[in-house]
Amino acid sequence: MAYEIYYAFACTSTTFEVFSFLVWYFMDLAFATVAIKYAYPPSRRTSTAVKLFFGVLLGLGFLHGLCLYFPDEREQITAFWTGVYLELPIGWGALYLLLREGNTKGHSIEIWLTRFLGCYCAFAVFVWRYLNVPENWEYVASPWSVGGMVVTLIPEHIYPFAYIWVLKKERKAKVE
Predict the structure, then answer these.
(1) What is the pTM (predicted TM-score) of this model?
(2) Number of independent structural domains in the chain
(3) Left if phi > 0, otherwise alpha if psi is -120 to 50, otherwise beta: which for 73?
(4) How far apart are CA 44 and CA 54, in angstroms?
(5) 38 vs 105: CA distance, rounded Å
């Protein structure tokens, strides 16, 4: 959530870009609200929401610190690398937890679809920039970049199949 808030204002140059980032933030906020309301007992909801709030504040501070340490025009390079390598553990972690727990509690195809589309849209923007002005976006074609994108997308392609498999097992267990 911190990523969408910070980069909505740090690296955008048009109102449309700001709104595009904020749409993802509001989707994250909606998912977090639903998760807190339905995944936690009433006694833990407030403390979880407070932790989420302070986590977002810490994330904003972390991203700001990175951008101060690695300054570039409109924080594009930092946005790219943090986006790739923040999404990497999220996709793998979601897949791992789904398979380890063997149930769909806390998981949904809707959240996966948002992650999947978000990855492809973000990567497409940077690849498009590289293809059009390669001298300004050389890092997008580096081995670390391409490798990061590929490794980030692997769990996103496996997840829906794993989700359906776990969901079928859950439904079969309920019938028995």
Answers:
(1) 0.82
(2) 2
(3) beta
(4) 16
(5) 10
Q: Residue 31: which domain range?
A: 1-69
Q: What helix, strand, coil percent values describe the chain, rounded to 5?
A: 90, 0, 10
- 119 burial type by CB count under 10 A (0-12 exposed, 13-18 middle, 19+ buried): buried
14-57 per-position pLDDT tens digit: 898 888 888 888 988 998 898 899 888 999 999 999 999 999 99
User: For residue 100, how many other CB atoms are within 10 A of its CB?
Assistant: 8
Angle in degrees, 0-180, between the axes of helices 15-39 and 42-69, rounded to the nearest 10: 150
Measured between alpha carbons, how far is 77 from 129 in angstroms, rounded to an integer? 12
Structure tokens at 104: 């769909």
Q: Both 85 and 58 in a single domain? A: no
Yes or no: say if 152 and 119 are a contact pair by the CB < 8 Å rule.
Answer: yes
Q: Same domain for 88 and 26?
A: no
At 119, the amino acid letter reads C
